[in-house]
Amino acid sequence: MTGRRLAYIAGLLLGMLALVGARTGLPTVPPAEGLLQIQIPDGNRKPPVPFSHKVHEAQKVACTQCHHDYQGRRNVWRQGQPVQPCRACHGLRSTARTLDLKDAFHRQCKGCHLQLRQRGRLAGPITCQGCHGSA
Questions:
Q1: How many whole angstroms separate alpha carbon 105 and alpha carbon 49?
Q2: Which of 4, 66, 86, 98 has minimal Cβ neighbours within 10 Å of its Cβ?
Q3: How far apart are CA 84 and CA 26, in angstroms?
Q4: Which is higher by pLDDT, 64 or 18?
């Protein structure tokens, strides 16, 4: 096989991989603003929580503080890798190894905000109304 033909085939393969990666719908660049919402079938839920990646980036919060892919006890997810929606692992019910979505959000977000406040640093809300607004 000639070098030119090999380069052509390699280019085709890379193009196909890029298309497949783009079609997975897994973002690698976060939206600036968004809503965190848990879809509960019985309809008993609080309003969605506004979330800003911009604010967290400005506060120098590492992406790995929230985004994770644990293998054993180690987070192997790295910035720039595709991000699964939280509900891909955290369902409406806890399992032996995984928190349910509500508890995962509360532990992650409220827990971090509480730790920052205990250190005397500026932090986000920690009350129901502070996050969800008036229900």
A1: 10
A2: 4
A3: 6
A4: 64
Residue 108, domain CATH: 3.90.10.10
**Domain span holding position 105:** 30-132
- pLDDT score of 89 more than 80: yes
In a domain, 19, yes or no: no
Task: Provide the phi-psi class of 29: left if phi over 0, else alpha when psi is between -120 and 50, else beta.
Answer: beta
3-state secondary structure of 36: strand
Band the pLDDT of 40: cuts 50, 70, 90. confident
Report the residue count for the chain. 135
> Which whole-number Å values give the CA distances from 42 to 38, 39, 45, 84, 131, in the listed order?
12, 9, 8, 25, 21
The dihedral built from the CA positions of residue 116, 119, 121 and 125, taken in this order, carries a sign that is positive
Compute the distance between CA of residue 86 and CA of residue 26 in angstroms, rounded to an integer: 12
Q: Which residue has the higher pLDDT, 30 or 68?
A: 68
Residue 70: helix, strand or coil by DSSP? strand
pLDDT at residue 57 greater than cutoff 80: yes
